[in-house]
Amino acid sequence: MAKSLNLTALVAVPGSGKASPESWSGAAKFAVALETAGMTAAELSDYCRSKGLYPEQVERWRQACIAGAQAGDQVEKAALKQARQQIRQLEKELRRKDKALAESAALLVLRKKLNALWEDEGA
After folding, report:
1. Cα–Cα separations (whole angstroms), residue 28 to 34, 35, 39, 114
2. This prediction's pTM
3. What Rg do the C-alpha atoms of the chain give, in angstroms?
4. Which among 1, 53, 93, 99 has the fewest CB atoms less than 10 Å away?
5. Does residue 5 belong to any structural domain of this protein?
């Protein structure tokens, strides 16, 4: 026995015409941009007519999606640049501390040798 498919559940965006398209959520506007991405001008016009939209609105929402993605890329690039700078700073500090540790170890070895020499001379 086949279940009936609820087509209203498959609609990604509000299309009842009760709410103004500009008051739709960002997710709904993004869904419209995705749904219409591969449509021809005639298909887009039919789609817009059925949803109570204007093709210009859809294009504006598509451009907003692109701009949002580009802004996200810029934020990621800035965070990556900051992380690289912090890594360089930490590596520089690590090199400095390694040198200081090596110098301290060398001084300890020299002190032990000097103490050993003084003990040998005193005997």
Report:
1. 10, 10, 17, 80
2. 0.46
3. 34
4. 1
5. no
- How many whole angstroms separate alpha carbon 118 and alpha carbon 123? 9
- Domain span at residue 50 reads 13-122
* CB 45, CB 55: distance < 8 Å: yes
Has residue 56 been placed in a domain?
yes
Closest CA to 62 of 44, 76, 84, 46: 44
Read off the tokens for 53: 């939209």
Question: Considering the chain, what percentage of its residues have pLDDT values greater than 90?
Answer: 30
- Please give the C-alpha separations between residue 75 and each of 30, 71, 80, in angstroms, as whole numbers: 20, 6, 9
Asked if residue 105 is part of any domain, the answer here is yes
Q: Are 10 and 45 in contact (CB under 8 A)?
A: no
- What confidence tier does 109 reach under pLDDT thresholds 50, 70, 90? very high
- Tens digits of residue pLDDT in 1-53: 444 434 333 345 555 556 677 777 778 888 888 888 888 888 888 888 888 88
Q: Let me know if residue 78 belongs to a domain.
A: yes
With beta carbons less than 8 A apart as the criterion, state whether 21 and 51 touch. yes
Cα separation, 28 vs 43, in Å, equals: 19
